[in-house]
Amino acid sequence: MNATLNEGQIKYVNVYVRAHACLMLFAWGFCCPNGLLAARHFKTAWPGGTIKKWKYWFAIHMSFQSVLFALVVLAFMIVVVNLTGYSTLSKLPYSAHPLLGFITFFLSFSNLFFAWMLITSTGGRRSLFRNLHLCVGLLAHALSVPLILTGFQMPKMGNQMCSSKAYSGMYLISLIFYAIVEVVLEVMGYKILFKIKSSFALFYLLMVAELRQKLQPFGLDVELIIQRIAQNPRHKKQQVMELLLNKAIEEKEFTQNSFKQIQTLRVIKYFLYAIHLMVSFSITFVLVIMVANL
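The line above is the sequence of Cytochrome b561 domain-containing protein; the predicted structure tokens follow.
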């Protein structure tokens, strides 16, 4: 703490520094984790639901990431103009903050390019840009953690913040909650996948044989069609019930119960995501208010 005070802290925090901190907190504390969750765990959710031909998960992900990018650019420009250049701090951890800021800004800008290439590419190039978009996004999110934690200790943030552990503690709570939600959603995703495979193994065999018989004479990509059907629960349920029309009542009831269990798991995922939205927004909002009133 003495080292912190020796860096010449001030009691009054510059309005531009506060604006920079508030924008970055909202970008990386709220927009980034919720955008990641939507893309990682809800690609097969909301079957058939679209917003102007965009699937719900994509619309949510793009909205969060677009706001994030706009906030990061604005916050970056505010602090660069205010400092009229690069920071002159030389001691750690203060000197790490501007370096991490420039790296994270570059990654955010690069990821916007990779996202555009992902949308407009096909075939092998699409797979390449998908992996680049994922890796760069995760790296930027990871670097935002030390970026924010060191930001709380910057001399320009004043004695009030640097001498208090409340800011870092609240931010770490939001990170821990995000990690818990991430793990739970991942486990539930595997449970849904296992339930689908174990319950509808016979259906897959029947569907594949039927589709190949009907579509191969027309030169259509049967494997791609099967993959799209597998990703659409509503279409899948319709196909299953058609194949089970002549089956025993017990088999029909078992299949219907399996669909209900899968749907219940999906609803729990939606509910958990909604809770994370509320919790992350609440913590970030309180942090922003606290920083704005320094």
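Note on the example: The longest strand covers residues 50-51. Confidence is low (pLDDT under 50) at residues 1-9.
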